[in-house]
Each structure stands twice: as structure tokens, then as C-alpha cells.
Task: inverse folding
């Protein structure tokens, strides 16, 4: 079944729904920069009619406008907003805090798209909360550190208190280990991501020169290497 047909079926169910992804379709002139001039083809007409028929709403977003780029030089550079999130009115009534975020474009010509259904909670979440990063388990000493914390605990019949105590101790141990072992790596990644966001914002406004584009490619390669 074609996507358009599936969307029509969903629309008959009177339930909240959202569709997200690469639509490979530019429906407004301002959603494309470079390349051939914008024109309304038959496929675009079909899509626009579908949106009217199903009451789909193009959700607003935060972040750079364009979600795709052919990654070529200035004269041949094409950028477009191809990746979008559409929902019906029932979705917005049920998830009125929905927010679409255009994230960084790394290791792809498409930008990552995140739909946050509770953006208010997301924005007010506690800062500095401890997170055990999954990639830490690749370090041999981490297993030993965790085992030591668990084995040193004076376990009693009150397992929940003991478990909570272990977690508190583990947090302190892992924070100290992180600072001594992977702090420089994470700091390098953060700095690279910060610079990438700045350059991507400049690029989305069509203000990047050849040196900026070269730096963008270098940053992408650096971030991929740091994430390995």
C-alpha cells in the first residue's frame, strides 16, 4: 500500500496520528535554495490535495530551516527542507506540547529530526543529572569499578536502601573516572558539535564560503571519529 493510501486509511480512524520523515518533496519556494527553480509538479499537487483531504498540519520546528543538502560547493550547492513532521488536529489536541527539532547533520546529507511530545518538560528538566553513558562499558576498567561498588556494599534485608546507596556511590565513582579518563574526549566532541551548529546555521542562510564548507566537512569527519 502506498504511503498516501495509508494516510487516507489513518484519517478515517478519528485518532491522533503523526507522520514524520523524508517526503522528498518541496512544497514552497522558500523551502529550497539552489538548483533548478521551484515548480509545482503533479506529485506536489497530489501531496497538497492529500494534506487538504486529511487535514494534515505541517508542524513548526526549531533549528536550521533546511534539512537536506547535496554537500557540494557554493555554485552547485542545493539545500531543501525535505524532512518534515505532519499531524492531524487530534494529535495537537492530545499532545499540545509537541515540538519538532532539526538536529545536527552528521554522517548523512539529511538532518536528524526529533519530535518531542512534551517539550515543556524537556526544557525544564534538571540540569547536570548523572547519566551512565552506554559507550563506557567499552572501557575494561568500568566493569571492575561497578563490581567494586556492589561488592563493598554492606547488604542487608533492606535491599532498596542498599541499592540506592550503591547507585549514589557509583555516581561519584563514575564522575571521578569520567573526569580522569574520558573528559577530554567528551569535551572535544562538545566543542566540535557547538562549532558544527554555528556553521550549519550560517550555511542555512547561504553565507558560507568555501573555507566554511571545508570546515563543515572536517567537523563531520571529526565527530564521526570521536563517536566510534
Result:
Amino acid at each position: 500500500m502506498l504511503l498516501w493510501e495509508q494516510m487516507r486509511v489513518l484519517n478515517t480512524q478519528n485518532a491522533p496520528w503523526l507522520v514524520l520523515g523524508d517526503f522528498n518533496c518541496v512544497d514552497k519556494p522558500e523551502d529550497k535554495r539552489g538548483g533548478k527553480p521551484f515548480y509545482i509538479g503533479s506529485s506536489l499537487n497530489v501531496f497538497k490535495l492529500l494534506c487538504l483531504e486529511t487535514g494534515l498540519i505541517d508542524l513548526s520546528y526549531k533549528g536550521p530551516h533546511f534539512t537536506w543538502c547535496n554537500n557540494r560547493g557554493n555554485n552547485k550547492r542545493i539545500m531543501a527542507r525535505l524532512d518534515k513532521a505532519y499531524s492531524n488536529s487530534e494529535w495537537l489536541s492530545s499532545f499540545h506540547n509537541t515540538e519538532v527539532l532539526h538536529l545536527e547533520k552528521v554522517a548523512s546529507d539529511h538532518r536528524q529530526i526529533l519530535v518531542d511530545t512534551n517539550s515543556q518538560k524537556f526544557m525544564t528538566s534538571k540540569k547536570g543529572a548523572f547519566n551512565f553513558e552506554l559507550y563506557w562499558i567499552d572501557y575494561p576498567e568500568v566493569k571492575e569499578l561497578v563490581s567494586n561498588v556492589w561488592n563493598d556494599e554492606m547488604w542487608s534485608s533492606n535491599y532498596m536502601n542498599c541499592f540506592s546507596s550503591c547507585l549514589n556511590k557509583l555516581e561519584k565513582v563514575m564522575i571521578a573516572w569520567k573526569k580522569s579518563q574520558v573528559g577530554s574526549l567528551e569535551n572535544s566532541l562538545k566543542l566540535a558539535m557547538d562549532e558544527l551548529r554555528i556553521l550549519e546555521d550560517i550555511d542555512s542562510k547561504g553565507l558560507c564560503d568555501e573555507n566554511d564548507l571545508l570546515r563543515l566537512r572536517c567537523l563531520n569527519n571529526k565527530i564521526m571519529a570521536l563517536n566510534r
